[in-house]
């Protein structure tokens, strides 16, 4: 299990590239867009977990990949000087806690990958894995994001 997980992580990591921002998109726009992207993927996975939708393995993989890639890029998108911008909901506490912040994004990646492994085991396992992943989002928002959307 541990070994399989490490291999899957390595495979996914090689697929991850740094997403360059285009045109007038600011770094803050980019990180908010990637967060919304993770939210969309999360909603899709949640609908499979609660039984309101049926997703095939490829679709689950695609949604997990969206989250893993976004969370990888996001680790680079909260530099000093961008944490007190009025357009951002990020809290300045990120700076002092950057190692913890990055570890939380890696936790999101790890738990997203667990969703991939849970899917063949049925809906109960899937629901458990998806809620585990959601907890990593909420845990970080509580600590490092202003309340509200
Ligand atoms: C390591 C911390 C961290 C993790 C993990 C994290 N977020 Fe966030 N999230 C933030 C911060 C900080 C902001 C505020 C960004 C800003 O406004 O500059 C944010 C903002 C958001 C937003 C608002 C985007 C907007 O349009 O303003 C959404 C939606 C969101 N996150 C969804 C998620 C989801 C879904 C997950 C898990 C799959 C997740 N986040 C995981 C820290 C995190």
TrEMBL record:
Gene Ontology cellular component list: periplasmic space
Protein's name according to its UniProt entry: Cytochrome c
BP GO annotations: electron transport chain
Cleaved signal peptide residues: 1-24
Coiled-coil region: 24-77
InterPro entries reported for this sequence: Cyt_c/b562 (IPR010980), Cyt_c_II (IPR002321), Cyt_c_prime (IPR012127)
Pfam families linked: Cytochrom_C_2
Keyword Transport recorded: yes
Residues spanning the membrane: none
Gene3D superfamilies named in the record: Cytochrome c/b562
Keywords: Coiled coil, Electron transport, Heme, Iron, Metal-binding, Signal, Transport
PTM text: Binds 1 heme group per subunit.
PROSITE patterns: CYTCII
Gene Ontology molecular function terms on file: electron transfer activity; heme binding; iron ion binding
